[in-house]
């Protein structure tokens, strides 16, 4: 059941990396519903266009930019265009993932370039705009995979762990500029054609085994991650920085 947003982001400028599907899309829509101007980027033009139309339905300024987040120059171009279109940046959300679940170098490099370096590069490009904002905030999407050893997907887990650690260092670096930095560590989140939706279809035993580890008895939704993002970006979290918030229905409690 949809929840009416208790947050008011009218006048805020929010940019979301990886904002066309799943969690990123839900975060972008939640900010737009709360009144923010929003920029999103992703590689797929069709999903970008569809999400841009959904964002525009809320009446605010919308910017959508095709961007390969593995390309430093593309990140720089997106952030510059977003800041110009929105008139600045108050909130940067680094949500994209390379989803490198294999064992080869390609999996490690995908997660290194997208999960970690894209967040670092976007932060670097956005910093002059954030420094000029009275609401400055950076949010990273980590994962509960960062919290425990994994048999599968060690590259993904390691880079998410690095991102969580970077969150603390970045928060310390930017505190004097009153720029807050936090991360969200989602548990297993299901949405149409997302990872766990595909696992449900292709590997029902794995789907059921993961579900059995979630004390709340269900997979999460992208909107539940978006609710946490709005809180952490809002003035209600004005003295919270350097933290990684688990949003997982208790999943990480079971290891």
TrEMBL record:
Regions annotated as coiled coil: none
Pfam families for this protein: adh_short_C2
Enzyme nomenclature, EC number: 1.1.1.-
Tree of life domain: Bacteria
Family statement: Belongs to the short-chain dehydrogenases/reductases (SDR) family.
PANTHER family from the UniProt entry: OXIDOREDUCTASE, SHORT-CHAIN DEHYDROGENASE/REDUCTASE FAMILY (AFU_ORTHOLOGUE AFUA_5G02870), SHORT-CHAIN DEHYDROGENASE_REDUCTASE FAMILY PROTEIN
Name the UniProt record assigns to this protein: SDR family NAD(P)-dependent oxidoreductase
Source organism per UniProt: Rhodanobacter humi
Organism phylogeny: Bacteria, Pseudomonadati, Pseudomonadota, Gammaproteobacteria, Lysobacterales
């Amino acid at each position: 059941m949809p929840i009416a947003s208790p947050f008011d982001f009218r006048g805020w400028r929010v940019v979301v990396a990886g904002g066309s599907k799943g969690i990123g899309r839900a975060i972008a829509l939640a900010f737009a519903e709360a009144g923010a101007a929003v920029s999103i980027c992703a590689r797929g033009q069709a999903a970008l266009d569809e999400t841009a139309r959904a964002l525009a339905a809320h009446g605010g300024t919308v910017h959508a930019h095709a961007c390969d987040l593995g390309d430093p120059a593309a990140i720089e171009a997106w952030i510059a265009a977003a800041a110009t279109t929105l008139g600045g940046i108050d909130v940067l959300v680094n949500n994209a993932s390379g989803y490198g679940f294999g064992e080869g170098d390609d999996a490690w490099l995908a997660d290194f370039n997208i999960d970690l370096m894209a967040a670092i590069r976007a932060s670097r490009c956005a910093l002059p705009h954030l420094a000029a904002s009275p609401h400055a905030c950076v949010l990273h999407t980590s994962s509960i995979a960062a919290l425990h050893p994994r048999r599968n997907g060690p590259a993904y887990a390691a880079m998410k762990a690095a991102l969580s650690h970077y969150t603390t260092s970045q928060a310390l670096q930017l505190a004097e500029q009153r720029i807050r930095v936090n991360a969200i560590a989602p548990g297993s989140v299901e949405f149409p054609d997302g990872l766990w939706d595909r696992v449900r279809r292709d590997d029902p035993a794995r789907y059921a085994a993961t579900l059995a580890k979630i004390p709340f008895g269900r997979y999460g939704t992208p909107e539940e991650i978006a609710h946490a993002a709005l809180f952490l970006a809002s003035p209600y979290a004005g003295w919270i920085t350097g933290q990684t918030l688990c949003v997982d229905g208790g999943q990480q409690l079971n290891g």
